[in-house]
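Today's session is about reading a structure prediction critically. Students often jump straight to the picture, but the first step is always the sequence itself: look for stretches that repeat, for charged clusters, for runs of hydrophobic residues. Only then move on to the predicted structure, which in these notes is written as discrete structure tokens rather than atom positions. Here is the chain we will use throughout the hour.
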Amino acid sequence: MSSAAPPPPAPPAPDDRMPGGGGPRGSGDAWASGGLALGGTLMVVYGLFAVLQGIAAIADDEVYTSFGDYVFEFDLTAWGWIHLIVGVLVVAAGFGLFTGAAWARMVGAVVVGLALIANFMWLPYQPFWSIIMIVTGLFVLWSVFNYRSPRAV
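Below is the predicted structure for this chain, in token form.
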């Protein structure tokens, strides 16, 4: 009696999602998937810092000083309100990213884009912090745009 070897497993269907694969229902990039979780965390932390920056600018205009003369000078109290509102929106979108909601990715991309513009214009007051937040915001945008939900659309 000869024993027959079991047949080899069938290759996965093209639509199956495998780690690192490129199926239409998955991200195809583990960096984007992990980046989305990191992006959500960074958005929540950034939003909380922006809220604190806004409160500091609203409560006491003497906290921040301007470095040089720039074309886009605004009243510091107005900047405080801008940072406070954008910070709250960024925190809400960051928490939404943890649920994987499509609205959170879209709102997050728009709000982070606004935060990037605000941080560029905030350069005269906090140059080092603004540059850090601009780079962080660009990473968050990259991760939001490169992530594909594993759920069927």
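Discussion point for the tutorial: The chain has four helices and no strands.
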